[in-house]
Here is the input.
Amino acid sequence: MVHYKKTFGEKLYDAINIAIISLLTLSCLYPFWYIIVASFSSPVEVAKHRGILLIVKGFSLEAYKAVFSNPNIWTGYRNTIFYVIVGSAVNLFMTTLGAYGLSRKNVWGKGVIMKIIVFTMFFSGGLIPSFLMMKSWGLVDTVWVMIFPGAISTFNLIIMRTSFQGIPDSIEESARIDGANDFEIMWKIIVPLSLPVMAVITLYYAVGHWNSFFGAIVYLRSRKLYPLQLILREVLISNSSDSMMTDASGGDKAGLREIIKYATIMVSTVPILCLYPFLQKYFVKGVMIGSLKE
Here is the structure.
């Protein structure tokens, strides 16, 4: 076995590369670490602290007690979970149907249809026409306005279509000889062979629904329909966190107001982060399958 000895220039390049990547990694991780540490710290200590925060200052769960005592948080959780589960199911179903149809070679006019679909990635009707259309359909201030308008993402449709095109035609031809129709081919052959890309698309849609708040701002009026991210927005940019500080004294309110914001960020972020490890093994493979075609 031959051992390759790196030159001084290569070693220097590796050292500089590792140093830069390490700095970039720390710059990305530190804000999240700061939020974690601050959310478990004492409000008095947080109010007094200045500069970098690396360790918990006076361990306290006051912020999390205040957050979980807020009924709006639980309402937001319930609504967001509904939007994620139902919305992702609708997204996946509609995207699969569209991708399968556009990936078949014998579909007439699919090139023109694909160009029209891609056109929507660059141009849209605008906010006001979209709102008027949702209003005319009776979707404004309903849970369905958070699901149906974005039922298909053009980007995800293209990825899934490319993945379906990479499946050998001989498999489909064999199924047709055995008497299978298009729906049987799609659900029993194409979809099972495309599980990695399906997992990635599901993750994309789920994260999109979890982080969605702009549509809620535009289309929703009832607070009982607000997603968690809209509740988080209110806590971060308004004084709604004051309603959670029932027992705080005047000196503690400034610090408690801050750590409530940090705790709310943690509560709204951690669940979706916990989903990623279960799909990680499909992630890279699914993206490559959807982006390359032999």
Observations:
- The first helix runs from residue 8 to 39.
- The mean pLDDT is 82.
